Amino acid sequence: MRLAALFAEDAAALLAGPAGGRVRACAAEECVMLFVPAHPSRRWCSPARCGNRARVARCYQRHRGD
To answer: Nearest 5°: CA angle at 61, between 55 and 62?
Structure first.
């Protein structure tokens, strides 16, 4: 219970603070994560996980008909 309260407090502080307006949802189809991008063009919560999956899916779509 205490861990949930600490998490809720931190989430409220993040959203109410200066970074609150920059919080984004991950652009990956099945991901439900939120993140604060370090760079304005960042689209995924994790470039290594969601970003890589999106790039692989695009590559597969381009080369699937070959």
So the answer is: 90
Sign of CA dihedral 22, 19, 26, 40: positive
Determine if the pTM surpasses 0.90.
no
User: Could you report the per-residue pLDDT of 19-54, keeping only the tens digit for each?
Assistant: 878 889 999 888 999 899 988 888 999 888 888 888
Closest to 42 (Cα-Cα) out of 52, 33, 32, 51: 51
Residue type, 1: M
Outline where DSSP puts E strands in the chain: 24-25, 34-35
SS3 48: helix
